[in-house]
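Lesson 9: reading folded outputs for more than one chain in a single document. The general rule is that every protein is listed as its sequence immediately followed by its structure tokens, and records are never interleaved. Here is the first one.
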Amino acid sequence: MRTVVIVALAAMLSACALTEDVVSIAYAPAAARPVPGAEAIRVTVTAVDARAGDRERISTKINGYGMEMAAIRSEREVAEVVREALSAELSQRGYGLGEGGPRVEVKVLVFHARFSDGLLVGKAEADVDLAVSVLSPEGRALYSHDLKARARRPVQAASGKNAAATLSDALADDFKALFADEAFGRALAGR
């Protein structure tokens, strides 16, 4: 009987790695003060998914031996997740969203999390690489910069929830670097 219980438990635990996860990637903008003069600026944000390879997959589960198993996918398009996150960051700083002002274009180059096993705890690592440009209302290039962020966190399971949280952390690191760049603020102001 004991052997049957152990085999059943092992089958249940390994089945988790075989089941595809579809997850929501939650993003909360950083606490930030409004930028002086931002309320007078309306910004349009667009994003495109320029990733090579499988654009639906954001990560892969692993089994206890570190072998890749089932896919982890976002329930929404990755470009839309990034566009909404950047829009939230701009709103947090007092910028209006809409036509008539500068256009921020984001290309998602990398958006992927991976897992590794550890002795007592595993690790999730996420890379989010973005190419950000700001164009004037007339289409003149005002700013261009590539952002590369990597986030890490300890995890107990290679799950969709952990992949989404680590990707959100990396996205927040990208935006922290973007808003720390004074040239980005000047481009939004049209200078």
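And here is the second record, again sequence then tokens.
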Amino acid sequence: MTAVDSTLVETVSERVEIWIEGGHESLLHARTACRRLTRNAGWPPEAQGDLALVVSELVTNACRHSSGPCRMSLEASGHAAVVEIWDSDPHIPDLPSTSSAPPSETALACGGYGLGIVVSLCKCLDFFPQQVGGKTVRAVVVP
């Protein structure tokens, strides 16, 4: 995807960081924080839902594919939200194809639609390997 436009991030008004241990309660806590920040920033309900879906998919992937706690950082303003998820898994996933071909039966059985949904909702999606281990995924969503 493309680099983050600095004008989208300069007006950040509120930030939250959450350690995610996995499980339903952690996901609920992340989604609740996301809704609160976007509501406070004046996002319309549909855009709040889009960002909550991005957060849900990224947190779920981090919990599913790493072997320990994860950290979510979320910044939101009226112009954009930046979500970063750090997890201990160093593997950078392949971005899904933008092909409009329907998925195979095998693909349907295995899941794997979350990252495609995230790509479709984000202005920008990047992955960064971390020297301390693991990776950070950064997603920028605009209302």
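What the second record shows: The longest helix spans residues 45-65.
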